[in-house]
Amino acid sequence: MNYLVSQIVNFITEQDVISDESDVQDFYRYGIEISISSLLNIVLVVIAGILIHHIIESIVFLTLFILIRSFTGGYHADTYFRCNLLMCTTFILTALANSIFSNKFSLLIIIVLICVTELIVSVLGPIENKNKPKEILIKIN
User: Fold this and answer.
1) Which residues pair with 127 in a beta bridge?
2) pLDDT tens for residues 7-45?
3) Angle at the Cα of 22 (from 81 to 128), degrees rounded to 5?
4) pTM
5) Which residues of 12-26 are buried (b: 16+ CB within 10 A; e: fewer)?
6) What gap in Å lies between CA 92 and CA 50, rounded to an integer?
7) What is the rounded CA–CA span in Å between residue 37 and residue 129?
8) Contact (CB, 8 A) for 49 and 55
């Protein structure tokens, strides 16, 4: 990841898109790193959805996951590999749970479970993390 980001930053610096000041370089380096990581997470979940024949579920999962995480914060893995692995594992377990339980519960029970989950998230969120302090999460909301 560092090599790829460095190559991109060097290229856009050489093209005079950004200045060669270290503050500017660090700013763009961080933005590019986060963008690549996020895009990789999305692509991996969609590929996992295709492989396990749950493409629609992968898109719904990503939409809801991204919305919830942007407002509530949460866990941040130490490395990009762990982040990608955790994201894919979470999706696969969610899709598996959906396959197992979707035919076992009525729509009313599912709605009640969604409401309870939303209540828990509303009460406990936002969750502070060293990478995203609570003050930033509150300003976003």
Assistant:
1) 73
2) 999 999 998 888 888 888 899 999 999 899 889 999 999
3) 45
4) 0.72
5) ebeeeeeeeeeeebe
6) 11
7) 18
8) yes
